[in-house]
Amino acid sequence: MKNSALFVIAALVVSSSVPVFANDKDECLLASKNCKAEVDSLQQKMKKLNGEIKKGNKVYSADELKKLNAKLKEANAMLDEMLKPGK
Prior knowledge:
By secondary structure, the protein is mainly α. The protein has helices at 2-23, 27-31, 42-55, 62-82. The longest helix is centred in the first third of the chain and has 22 residues, at 2-23. The chain is globular and about 45 Å long. Keywords: Coiled coil, Signal. Residues 32-82 form a coiled coil. Residues 1-22 form the signal peptide.
């Protein structure tokens, strides 16, 4: 009986801690979800992307990190394009 009770308690603790990790993700940056009318400058977006990428595998899967890195690369390319002389 004790083992069953411990198993149930352990399952509840594990299941209640999983959403905490999911909330650390910035779904707006990752998949354009839950963007509550966020309008960031290019520099702000790049700063946010860097911050999210630094969270690494603790928060994001390998595929999600690839997406964030691709978005950062795209933002850097946009900034480079805007800073070219003659524009």
